[in-house]
Batch of 3 targets.
Target 1
Amino acid sequence: MFDPEDLVANPTVGPSFSDWAGFDPGRRRWLGAALGAGALAFLSPGIQAATPRPRISFDGIPVAVDDAVHVPVGYTAQVMYAWGDPVSDGPAFAPDASQSADDQAQQAGMHHDGMHYFALPPLAGRRNHGLMAINHEYTDDGLLHTDGMRTWTADKVRKSQAAHGVSVIEVVERDDGKWEVVRPSRFARRVTAYTPMRIAGPAAGHPWMRTEADPAGLVALGTLNNCANGHTPWGTYLTCEENLQAYFVHSGTIPTPLRRYGINERGFGYRWHEFDVRFDSQRHPNEANRFGWVVEIDPFDPTATPVKRTALGRFSHEGAAHAIAKDGRLVVYMGDDQRNEYIYKFVSRDAVDPKRRDGNRDLLDHGTLYVAKFGQDGNGEWIALTHGTNGLVAENGFASQAEVLIHTRQAGDRVSATMMDRPEWIAVHPRTGEVYCTLTNNNKRGGTTSNAVDGTTVLASAQPPVDATNPRAANSFGHIVRWREAAGDAASTRFEWDLFVQCGDPALDDPAKRGDIHGDLFGNPDGLAFDAQGRLWIATDISPTALNKGDFAGFGNNALLCADPVSAEVRRFLTGPRGSEITGPCFAPDGRTLFVNIQHPGENPGERNDPEHPKALSAWPDGSSGARPRSATLAIRRIDGGVVGT
Ligand code: FEO
Ligand code: CA
Ligand code: CA
Ligand code: CA
């Protein structure tokens, strides 16, 4: 196989800048110490003013409610990879969705979400050449099958599972700036909800991980609800399993640990359990324990078995953004996206080996998982979720580190972590090391009983009171929190935090709904990414139930915005088609292409389209020539070839 380790020495063709944030490819050393100066900026407004400010020179665009993608004057957006497009030289998309499950397993899945670009050596006559790993978060089974869910069969379950997971595609940028998927490609791959995965780390083999089909508890079938993502400095992809509960149905009495993860009696309409018995949670209660993990995939080796890294904890993972500690250890920040869940970070035991890729093969299996406790005074603390400490002992239900990890949420409850307003993506500033996290909304806060900090287990249904970090009851618009680790070291157990922005509409009567945005209106921040120069890109996910109605009437369709982290000024860069969510922002290594995913165009509040009227809300991207809307990856460039955002 091609070895991406060869790329490290050359920053122009190596993994993108963010792959190596903190690593100086020229001198082959980590820049940990250099981050220290930036650390002061958070503490002192005087020094903060001296922090280099990224230039944002496009004109923000207005809100839009039409069925189209809009970008600023001087930019162009190209549809590069849509649901059903072949990953390699397999079958083409069938506009009436008549492709088989086997066809779907060789095509782009549905509902593109987080993604990352991995550079390959240049090809003659091509500006950029790389691999993209792209998550397919979930399916709309109304759109996926020609007649939707009117009939239900084992083949439809198989096809739904094949439309989940991850795509790895090979892409090139031609000299005229157009991006193409390389077909055929020796790298191309689909990982689905039935691809075998190795279970690694402390929970591997634990009795709670064992099933009838896998009595050793070491090999799980598939990954699902792959929401946001991360990547490692050694060029692997991290795909994050979010709403595992959606796929299981548990008739009868549901064990408390499964309830804590949202497993219920009805499921969420996937109906997989009717033909794939492992999703019948009553019959196979441990199967749900095998989901909710971060999965590491080597995009450069299509034969490599994906690995579920249990040391990073089990919850509704949103993303996995990394930083490098001063001593070279890897730090991974992760949100648990449900109402009143927690923010975590993993600190590896060993330092990253920047010279030998293989030296990092098991790096994510050893380390400490922490959960965040935000103090009311702007200070915060990372509490270790380590067996034998902080009450994580057998008498409290944690007999080993495996049990702490399989029941990560309960461990967070035990140590009274701070209940957050739905943590979505996390992004680390490439120069200052400041960490930003979107908190998308929360309609389950503002309870008058202060049962959140009583030192014992907190029920998921409890409504915590407002607090300094989550200051609004019924937070319908969301906000962004940021923190800076003590001494500028990502491995610190203490941090300082503040609120970067509270979303809202200044035109609304209720002061609590007006927010404090400087610049263009946005709500329900979700996707989040820094570019190499420190511009913060924010993607929104206003739910189809709220979009362009009521308090959201002024927000338009979902959007991508660009913010200056110093001034907090925000400009709207892109608006999406009707019913879509914007997600996945990431960059080509030269910063001249921004990749964005348009997820679920045309989605209605039920999340299941009517196959009789599939284009009722949106016909994007194919318009009149297509039969149904499709999620797709966009490649966005400046027409003059300049760096995006400048
Ligand atoms: Fe899959 Fe929390 O968004
Ligand atoms: Ca999300
Ligand atoms: Ca969301
Ligand atoms: Ca969403």
Note: The two ends are 37 Å apart (CA to CA).
Target 2
Amino acid sequence: MNLILLGPPGAGKGTQTAALVKRYNLLSVCTGDIFRANFNAGTPLGLEAKQYMSQGLLVPDELTVRIVVDRLNQPDAQNGLLLDGFPRTVYQAEELEKYLANKAQKVDHCLLLDIPQKELMVRLTGRRSCRSCGRVWHLNFAPPPADLTCPTCGGQIYQRDDDGEVAASNRLKVYLAQTQPLAQWYKDKGLLKTVLASGSPEEVEKAIRLALEEKDQK
Ligand code: AP5
């Protein structure tokens, strides 16, 4: 199964990834994580992407498609994908469709995590992340350890610079303008499943499972 996880910044895409990957035996490909890993490693790609990310803007399509194609060409990416944060524009969706068609594959579902806007700023500005492994916490809902050391990998827990008020609010505007139209695009293809993402992580996980296992929504 090839699954797209669509939703505004802070909707809980990353939080739901672990359960989905395990349940459906998928490889998770998160473009935000790829850009951050490149930035941490000081690559030219990471430095270029950072200029856009820190302002809450999308990284240009051509660069984004190139890094995704590179990742999807790797041997471990041939059987079942969970795409988190890609595509984010209709152009990216069209390129993905062409790429998969060349491999006689397709997108099976686009799962939209739907959540009221007012909850998103709380989730984004309260998020803390591990700089090394990307694990996330939330100051109110899942507080990080007091010493800000990641219990999974020993990395430093920090606030992403695009989770500050200004960049986070820009990301929400960019989502509405450039990414939200993809929901209709996938709906027109009969691939969209919508899940309310404002309950607890466990409630959202259950709703996702039910949505993926029911017959196609009309
Ligand atoms: P990316 O890293 O993908 O960020 P995003 O899509 O904005 O998503 P987030 O990581 O902010 O949120 P999430 O939905 O994963 O939420 P999470 O689970 O962490 O992209 C960053 C940037 O990279 C983009 O802005 C862009 O510049 C660039 N980029 C990436 N892909 C691109 C593309 N395709 N094209 C161009 N540019 C691209 O949860 C958020 C918080 O809420 C956490 O603290 C969590 O603990 C908490 N939480 C989660 N679920 C719940 C719940 N059910 N109840 C209570 N709290 C919850």
Note: Residues 7, 9-15, 30-32, 35, 52-53, 56-59, 64, 85-88, 92, 123, 127, 136-138, 141-142, 162, 171, 200-201, 204 surround BIS(adenosine)-5'-pentaphosphate (CB under 6 Å).
Target 3
Amino acid sequence: MKKTLSLVMVAFMVLFLAACGGEDKANDNAEGGDSGEVKKIRAGIGLNDAHPQYQSLLEFKKIVEEKTNGQIVVETYHSSQLGDDRTMTEALQLGSQEVTIPSTAPIANFVPEFSVFDFPFLFPSEEVADKVLDGEVGQKFLDMLEDQNLVGLAYWENGFRDVTNSVRPIATAADFKGLKLRTMENEVHLEAFKALGANPTPMALGELFTAMQQGTVDGQENPYATINLQKFNEVQEHVSNTHHIYSPFVFLMSKSFYDGLTEEQQQIVKEAAVEAGKHNRELNRETNEKSLAELQEAGMTYTEITPEAREEMKELVQPVLDKYTKEIGEDLVQEVYDAIEAAQK
Ligand code: KDG
């Protein structure tokens, strides 16, 4: 009888201690004034789930959920399931979505200064782009997003863009003549392709495959990884290494959501965006490198742009750069050029 009683008491003690442990855990989560409520991030992108951008978004999810002990959960959406770059950015402003990672090109519709990053032939290499974007100049642009109710947490990489089409191989500027090319929704892209002699149309990524399939457009431009993973080779014949624009991504968060996080949570999402961004740049570069060979194996013709042909393209687009340099502000554009020069030393 005595034995049974002490067993019951031990069991009671074990249960009591376990309950105390649980309470401690709840208090840990409450650190920083958090009420303990679970917050949800809906994160959407335009590219599909095979793309490095989505793989790195999963990395962001893993880091955030682990570091917040599940107090912030991340739901991920790919393939424009939540909309295109512009509509998702608008949803962030309204607070009906928390994260998206658009190219800088559509961001220029919200903060026009971002156009400078889409100047053709601006960045000479990925490494220089990393230094400029991760440095003071890059931060200056991220700070400009706040007035638009957006928080820029980090730069990720879309990469050097290359032209594909189904009419003819592109070797020189003359080959652009009359080509119906899809561009992102960005004035610099649009005007640069007009200056090269093409007939550009802005269009959301989600509509592009069908537009190429049905011949509404003859071609498009994107990094090799995207051309390959979005299977554009199924509806495109020729690819050239125009490398005409280095396209950064910006990891955007809704400002109203960010402001509602505790300081500790803000730190966690910021660090996670940067950390997952490193993963993204690495994976993106690996994928780009192998994608060109895979596109050729899949039957696309590949044309190399000679340095002379690229020089001619640069000259043709120069008036567009002059026009937008004035619009953005000469001093700010000069700051970007100076940072690019410094990054090469
Ligand atoms: O997820 C990012 C995409 O929505 C988009 O920015 C990709 O480069 C792109 C394009 O051409 O639309």
Note: The radius of gyration is 24 Å.
